[in-house]
Amino acid sequence: MNLTDKSLRFKKQPAVIKDFEEIYGQVIEERKFTKNILSTIDEGFFVLDSNFVIQKRLSDCLDVIFKEPNLVNRNFVELLDGKVHDEAKRETKEFLAYMFQPDLDEQTISEMNPLQSIEFHYEDKTGLWSTSSHLAFKFKRRYKRNKIHSLLCTVKDISENTHLKEQIKSVKKTTKTQLEWLVNILHVEPPLMKEFMYIVESELNVLDDIFKTQQGQGNYKPVIGKLYRSTLHIKSSASLLNLSFFKENIFELDTVINRLRKQDEISGGDFVPVIIQIGEIKATFKEIKQLLNQLKHFKIYLRPNRSYESGLLIKAAKMSIQNLSKEFHKKIQFVYDKFDPTNVPYPFQQIVREYILTLIRFIILHSIETPKERVAAKKDPLGIIEIETFKKSRQFGFKVRHNGSEGRIEKLIQDASDDEKLTSNQEMNSQSPELGSDLIRFLFTPGTHPKDLNEAQHSKEIFKDMELVKKKLKMRGGKMKITFTSEKFCEYSITLPGKK
Asked: Tell me, what's the pLDDT at 455?
């Protein structure tokens, strides 16, 4: 190399250095720019190597999102300890391992991401979860020399959106539920709905009193009977009006109580599910009251579908006969062609429903025999229950008739007479004209039912319902007559004052 070449070389070096300084300056500016971007975007950014370790390139907001300082060189999977459930942590480790396997399609694997939307929990000083956030993680492969080098990861706090979606979902569910309730309620006459609300409120108060008076007394068997009766009254009333939303609610409570009735030993702790279910019923009842109060703001009542309303009693009676017949192995034909529900005056609809359904229960349990018993007595194995309506001068009336055994009724009355609870102790036969009046006295005199009714656990509840119905009947000026016809039918005839 001559002197000229060396001179030229030294002359070029300052230019190369200058170019290098410019390039280096651009790199520094680019790094600053990237850091500024990472610090301003609302998503956290970080990079994971093949060992799932967090690399140096990460956004500042990660410390806030994870509520952990110094995240660099921390294992991401281990960072999940105490923040997500163990199952989510295990699935995340598997997912990240799949992301580093080149033979697996990235898009397909991404759909398996267990952290797409997950609730992150944060511990307090005692090690207990105190707060939480909903986070969304995304992972994308980064290639170097055609090999998977690392994973580019982003995380975003979606708590606000998640909570908003949950609120919208809750509002939609509540709105849908209330619309269903409204449609259901509008089919019921206002006086009937008012009486139903009164019944539910009264029975809920009874349930509260049961638990208040029982505290610390032990012997929970009598409590179950009281709970069962109140539940049955609410359920029957809801069924009468076909209030399906309330029937579902009370069904859960009924299931819990029936489970307790089958237990040999009962402790106070066994009533916790009962109290929870009662609380849910109270909440539903409160919402219904608020809904009904809103309806009161309308000056014009929305008229319910009368034909729909009229069919509820027949439907309820059919279901009652069907269910009880199946439970007590009896075959019964229900005849209702002479019963016109549209003739029932509005103020009497509830009492008529209660009376008919209570009589049906009594007849099936204590009058209609099983097919085997009826065949042995040279009868048609099929029992019959008939209902009909009739009108008299300024009176409305209805009848319930059946072809059950008079002997079964006589035995019930005789059992009560032996227990010295009836005023009449005379021996009766099927032709006695006193049998009808004795049966009325038997059904409606408090405490006249036998001590041991083995045919059904809820038999005594029927007599209690009879007593309540009798009081309501008396309050409305109603009268009842029981006759035994020549066709071996027992007929209950009830009259109520009509419109003046």
From this structure: 45
